[in-house]
Amino acid sequence: MFVSDFRKEFYEVVQNQRVLLFVASDVDALCACKILQALFQCDHVQYTLVPVSGWQELETAFLEHKEQFHYFILINCGANVDLLDILQPDEDTVFFVCDTHRPVNVVNVYNDAQIKLLIKQDDDLEVPAYDDIFRDEEEDKEHSGNESDEGSEPSEKRTRLEEEIAEQTLKRRKRREWEARRRDILFDYEQYEYHGTSSAMVMFDLAWMMSKDLSDMLWWAIVGLTDQWVQDKITQMKYVTDVGILQRHVSRHNHRHEDEEHALSVDCMRISFEYDLCLALYQHWSLHDSLCNTCYTAARFKLWSLHGQKRLQEFLADVGLPLKQVKQKFQSMDVSLKENLREMIEESANKFGMKDMRVQTFSIHFGFKHKFLASDVVFATMSLMESPEKDGSGTDNFIQALDSLSRGNLDKLYRGLELAKQQLRATQQTIASCLCTNLIISQGPFLYCSLMETKNRRCKLLPLVMAAPLSAEQGTVTMVGIPPETDSSDRKNFFGRAFEKAAEGTNSRTLHNHFDLSVIELKAEDRSKFLDALVSLLS
């Protein structure tokens, strides 16, 4: 069920209990976790933190800990599946679920005893009515023939029997009609996967309601929202709306700290709202590297081709930036060039058909030396969590990423920025390689593997299915479904249900372990029949 009063029905319930936190491996979940940890520390709440990256880890961790805890908090996992069916908990176990994944599973919505959903009701949830999807079994168990037939004439018995048969036939028909309608309603409701309000924002809202919102918590809420924008999980309208909410909180906090002595100290922390360039890590990189490794500019210029490289040179010439300047670190560029850089780049970008070069965002200053954009922190934290270093486990990476969000661990944040640069370069090189060697198969209703440089104008309108080797020993691949990228895109992803249907129809051996339903593991030898089924489903 949806929790209406987060303070009374959630926080005050767990405040005097030992609780277990299951936290998914994404930046928004980490930020929500940091806010909740700060609140728990403030009120001396005992908790255990367990990072989980998929359903198997969640099930294993729950089995390990279910005897010690009655209260479980799930951050960015658990809302979009029947949690009780997966975990099979005891009747006195209670789950508090703060998750951005949509649609919310209907069983979770209508279970009042064990599932408590920490989800904002103002999100466009469109949950089906209870009577449309659940039916009282007692209605179906009624059976006729209870009345005594003793003393009745044979003709009366026959008439009564005919009436009962007609009544049962009518009931069965109504039941079939109801079930068919239920299937249609659930299909329409579950067809698309999308994301709701950032979990970090939900947790910050709770802190604010309890008058315990610190500037650090506000920054984590900003980073959580920015993660959704960087990962393209929410619409531009949703992002701008939520930025407006956080901007009011920033103004309130800045006004509150104006008269405090530490406002001008070396240890001060200042959050600012600003319009900045939509370029990855450009203030910690060279402008040239940032332009080449930002998805938006790399795709617009088509930098994998010689023509694209030439267009980039023309763009820089139009802006009036010498190559010597753009290829050195941003911090080392001439101050005269940096003064109006954002306006100059935006003006030239409009001429080159790039109308989204500036974005509403926030920055943070630690003292007088360290400045980061919210997107810088997202890239750094994400890179630390996904670090491929062999000596680090998933849990180690999770802790490193979590620590990097604290202002006392700037060394870890800077290490994350360096890792992020490597990852962005590797991503762009992989994409360029796929495009240049034509590793693309057009399957009709979708492109398979990667984007293809082609004159087919439908490419921009087609969704994309990518496959990457996962385990050579087990012979498995990871399949990812990505919705088409259009200006009017509602960020809804239909691949979760489509993958499920294609696997069922072909008996393909799949593992739906990821919290995002549009990411699955598949046996490599089943790939061909799986794709054929997917084509026929989407055609």
From TrEMBL:
The keyword Cell cycle applies. It is found in: Nucleus. One of its GO terms (molecular function) is single-stranded DNA binding. Residues 137-163 are annotated as: Disordered. Residues 154-163 have a biased composition (Basic and acidic residues). GO terms for biological process: cell division; DNA replication initiation; double-strand break repair via break-induced replication; mitotic DNA replication preinitiation complex assembly. Pfam families: CDC45. Keywords: Cell cycle, Cell division, DNA replication, Nucleus. It comes from the Eukaryota. GO terms for cellular component: DNA replication preinitiation complex. Belongs to the CDC45 family. PANTHER family: CDC45-RELATED PROTEIN, CELL DIVISION CONTROL PROTEIN 45 HOMOLOG. This is Cell division control protein 45 homolog isoform X2. The gene is CDC45.
